[in-house]
Design a protein that fits this description.
With 165 residues, this protein is α+β, with helices and mostly antiparallel strands. It contains 2 helices and 11 strands.
Length: 165
């Protein structure tokens, strides 16, 4: 019985193995002269879990399946990609990269390859006034399929940028 339990625990440990990278987050606001810079980690688990955590877990961006949770400045924002087209596209791109699949095609997705990197820009259809972001720009290393940069452009002209190492 103990041997079976040990084997089960080892199997579970293998399933939860994740890819972790160091991240530097820069938040730029047009209204503030100095950018806010913090560090943290990027954690990825197949098939569809991504967690970017900075400021000692005070700020987080989590994709867990179709649910996105953003905690910033003590405020929590939650959306589901089943109900939010912008995040549905974002989820499709992230899931494809995580699982080594091609970037999906779409009217709101453009892809450019430069210097060994693939730059994917997601720009939602115009007219969505309540969207938090005007676009997402994701830079991926073409050889290793690792995230290099994520920039989320905000409605007010500011942005949050994550650089992964």
């Amino acid at each position: 019985m103990i041997r079976l339990l040990v084997i089960l625990l080892l199997c579970l440990a293998q399933l939860s193995v994740c890819n972790a990278q160091t991240v530097t987050k820069t938040h730029h606001s047009k209204a503030v002269k100095t950018d806010q810079v913090s560090t943290g980690t990027l954690t990825i688990r197949k098939p569809s879990y991504v967690c970017i955590s900075t400021d000692g877990d005070q700020d987080q961006l989590i994709m867990d399946g179709t649910q996105f949770t953003m905690t910033r400045g003590g405020r929590k924002h939650v959306t589901d990609s089943k109900k939010n087209a912008q995040f549905a596209t974002f989820q499709a791109v992230l899931t494809a990269v995580i699982n080594g699949q091609p970037i999906p095609a779409g009217d709101d997705i453009s892809t450019v390859t430069k210097g060994g990197q693939q730059i994917v820009t997601i720009t939602p259809a115009t007219g969505k006034k309540r969207q938090m972001f005007t676009s997402f720009v994701l830079t991926i290393d073409s050889k290793s399929s690792t995230f290099r940069l994520l920039r989320m452009n905000e409605r007010n002209g500011g942005y949050t940028e994550y650089v992964f190492k």
